[in-house]
Specification:
The chain is an alpha+beta fold. Helices cover about 25% and strands about 30% of the residues. Bound molecules: guanosine-5'-triphosphate (GTP).
Length: about 575
Amino acid sequence: YPTERIRNFSIIAHVDHGKSTLADRLLELTGTIKRGLGQPQYLDKLQVERERGITVKAQTATMFYDHKFQGANGIDVQEPCRFLLNLIDTPGHVDFSYEVSRSLAACQGALLVVDAAQGVQAQTVANFYLAFESNLTIIPVINKIDQPTADPDRVKAQLKSMFDLDPNDALLTSAKTGQGLEHVLPAVIERMPPPPGNCNSPLRMLLLDSYYDEYKGVICHVAVVDGTLRKGDKISSAATGQSYEVLDVGIMHPELKPTGVLLTGQVGYVVSGMRSTKEARVGDTLHQSRSIVEPLPGFKPVKHMVFSGVYPVDGSDFEALNHAIERLTCNDASVSVTKESSTALGLGFRCGFLGLLHMDVFHQRLEQEYGAHVISTVPTVPYIFEYSDGRYVGAVITLCSERRGEQLEYTFIDSQRAFMKYRLPLREIVVDFYNELKSITSGYASFDYEDSEYQASDLVKLDLLLNGQPIDAMAAIVHNLKAQRLGRDLVEKLKKFIDRQMFEITIQAAIGSKVVARETVSAMRKNVLAKCYGGDVTRKRKLLEKQKEGKKRMKRVGSVDIPQEAFHEMLKVS
Ligand code: GTP
């Protein structure tokens, strides 16, 4: 087929305005499906689509139509010629607009179907703009004119005021009674341009959609933008660089019909031995393996609005569910999937959807098409958290600067994670830096360190003295600026560990001969026998022995006993 005799068009509309019914009528009119024998909404193939009466997946059908161009006086200006028309049916619900924008990428024109009674609705507007921004030729079709409440003039006025569409261009139809349908395809041929591609350029085709077939493997729907694709060709993916041999190629008429070749401007299917569904990336450009081509613009990335967990009812079915989800996402690339685990439900997946209906349909398809029994968690919408006390990074910066850190680097890895590099004195991090970091960041921060060079610093030796005698194990090298405060903290803390004795104990912190802090523990012996009234001698001895044993674990400094744990705890203060 020469490109001039190809038209690729889509039908877009608000939900229930009659797209699928109109598509059925056009398929019948061109003999693509037999009148009356086809099920209604022929292109709605999925069980979920039939049950819900909505289109979920965009479907493509190739039709052949003999058209005669007529002059203004109604006389034929040339012999009738056969046109190849690719009709791409699209979903109307807002959740599936991703499918719409993908379909439009393969089209040059769109039939904008509007219910004659309801008039322009929200999705009419949204879909109009999708088509308009894709520079498509838009033909307004006012459908359901058979309804008693139909008011085509009002709808024409809306089309004019909302979209600046010429009321005279609107076609009036009833997909139900067949009225006005004969004007639709001639309008498509005469008003819409043929595909713009170049048949002499190297092959470039856009991967529109894909699904998995048990016998053939992955079947890709493609739009050939430039060049020609033949069975036996070696093709490569621009996204992955992987190469494949074209095993089968053809059109959807509307069932798969092998043709052995697809020409510039045609929409059809390709089987190329792709085994993993991950290989078929919707929006990818496929080209001849030998040639280097500029990849076609892909599709807008999807924005997920609703998230929910999907878990197998029986934990042992996890692998089967994994497989089912992989297959299904090949056919619905707009779902995002990441693995997650829950204490109650075990291993599962967190899936992102375009909306609630999209989520429901996904669950239903998992059950109906893959027999997967799943539990789905309450859907949530994405949130952006802002902590009332600022981000965690603030607390980390404060911690590091308190620890005499010098900031070397501070970057955001993504919107969630910051990377900070500090030069910190080793002494400041060895003891409880990690604990503190974890606690101020609710466990989110991770920490790693490596040795830096020795740095010059204003350091002093801080001694702790008990009754004038230094406790060598508690002496610390500290920064001069911090020495005084630290001295006070240490003295206070040590006091808590020292039992009162028969004599007064002084606890001091000193830098050289200069005392910077002082506490005293007043005299009094702790009487372990105080509560032991008239007990026999063995009991008393036991208590005294126990006290003695306790003393063994103490360190005697200047005739004062310091419990072992005090040494450890003191380190934490410093
Ligand atoms: P989605 O696939 O869900 O986006 O809907 P759709 O726009 O494809 O609508 P569909 O073709 O499923 O039609 C919706 C309902 O309108 C069906 O019950 C059709 O029988 C009915 N319908 C379609 N065209 C006409 C028409 O011209 N006249 C009347 N009276 N009813 C129509």
